[in-house]
Design goal:
With 300 residues, this protein is of the alpha/beta class. Helices cover 46% and strands 17% of the residues. α2 crosses α10 and α5 crosses α6.
Length: 300
């Protein structure tokens, strides 16, 4: 149903909304100028970034330049790589990333430890060190989410021993994360219920789910049931992904996903991952992915 305005005949709806938006923003600017210490523009409900590995620049300041070209608001930065295992725990590396963010105006949206797919958290001693140190790196960069990956060698499906090991290790590091205000986001092929079981066993507000719709669907899970089960309180961030296709051109029902995300009241970062057909230009492709998501959500 179209809402009717008393002066609909003299001013069209779009012009009226544009005028109201201009007045709203002007009021904020006047208030900010009058009292800059107590007023600030409201944070948008959704913010859009991309994984640095998906734009081809893992733990590399050039990822921020690419994000700027694409028109993204943030970059999810790899904590480390196989060639640079100490990663952001090296002061010089951290400062390079921080400087790139400042130079481009593109935020560090969150961190991710993808190396856990190669050196599993459930079994590799060095992985414990990475997870512990990532807390300090995240705090130094002013972000509050660190993605912990559980794929490939780190897969937890049908691995009760591995799950118990992960729970024990998260219990040890959780107080450190809580003190710094950092959240660990578990990303895996586990079901929503299995994720919740791990979170309950750890017993810390510093552990949540990093939800990836494509991964969940590939694992045979019902994403629409799962997102309702987890709700906004248990989801720290979202990956917006298709494998080998641009967003909207694969098998995921993104308009329905967008409605589900809005229905649970989620707010925060969404990171585009993958969604790249073979042979395409990454800047052009991700610009299209950005525009597609902007048609489903509001990032302004």
């Amino acid at each position: 149903m179209v809402e009717q305005f008393p002066y609909h005949n003299t001013m069209n709806h779009n012009a009226l909304m544009d005028r109201r938006e201009m007045i709203r923003k002007s009021a904020w600017l006047v208030a900010a100028a009058a009292s800059p210490d107590t007023w600030q523009l409201p944070v948008p409900r959704f913010q859009l970034g991309a994984c640095d590995w998906s734009v081809g620049k893992s733990l590399n300041p050039e990822a921020f330049d690419r994000a700027q070209q694409i028109g993204l608001q943030g970059i999810q930065v790899s904590y480390n790589t196989s060639k640079n295992p100490s990663g952001l725990s090296v002061t010089d590396t951290l400062q390079i990333i921080k400087a790139a963010s400042k130079r481009t105006g593109v935020k560090v949206s969150s961190l991710a430890i993808g190396e856990l797919n190669r050196m599993p958290y459930k079994s590799a001693e060095i992985a414990e060190e990475w997870v512990w140190n990532s807390v300090d790196a995240a705090a130094a960069l002013g972000v509050d989410v660190v993605l912990l990956a559980f794929f490939s060698d780190g897969d937890l499906r049908n691995d009760e021993k591995g799950k118990k090991a992960v729970v024990a290790k998260l219990r040890k590091v959780a107080p450190h994360a809580e003190k710094k205000g950092i959240i660990f986001g578990i990303e895996s092929y586990l079901t929503a219920q299995e994720h919740l079981d791990i979170i309950q066993a750890v017993g810390s507000k510093s552990v949540k789910v990093y939800y990836d719709f494509r991964n969940a669907a590939d694992a045979g899970n019902d994403v629409f049931k799962e997102i309702k089960m987890l709700g906004k309180e248990m989801i720290c961030e979202l990956h917006m992904k298709e494998n080998g296709q641009k967003l909207g051109q694969g098998t995921m029902d993104w308009p329905k996903i967008a409605e589900a995300v809005k229905d649970i009241g989620y707010s925060g970062w969404m990171q585009i991952e993958g969604a790249t057909p073979p042979g395409v230009d990454i800047i052009e492709c991700y610009t299209e992915n950005r525009k597609y998501l902007e048609g489903l959500f509001s990032f302004k």
